[in-house]
Amino acid sequence: MVIVVAKVIVVYESKYGNTKPVAETITEGMSKSEGIETVIKELTDVDPNKITDYDAILIGSPNHYGGPTKGIKEFIERLGKLHLEGKLYAVFDTYLGKKSDYFFERAVKKMEKTINEKVPALKQIASGLSIKVQGMKGPIMEGELPKCKEFGKKIAIQLKA
Question: Which of 80, 99, 147, 155 is the most exposed place for a label (fewest CB within 10 A)?
Fold first, then answer.
């Protein structure tokens, strides 16, 4: 019998389908760790009232005009109305990588800032992850998905500590 140490929900929004495999790969990285129970949900399928059932919330968004999507911003606002004391969070984004990495961590940093301001009860478990995609509609750049798996493993280790 496996004892559940922590329950994690991974919530994401994906405009062109790139953020979904990132969320899935992060979840895969966490699921390799015994005792970590993970649930992955597209933003539209999330019941905000059930968020308090989880020990950690991972939030993912594509970089949309230099920040998270409107839906993710609204989700974070709703989190501020919940009792999340003792809960943990981490965020991730996908960004368009061109000649420069101008958008690297732009949505991640804005989500972290907003969560720290609007949902101070949540404590950050890991620095955000920013994953590069080749074009507006993808695909994800080669070598980026292994970073997602490592991110998931790192979070699982932190949860068990």
Answer: 99
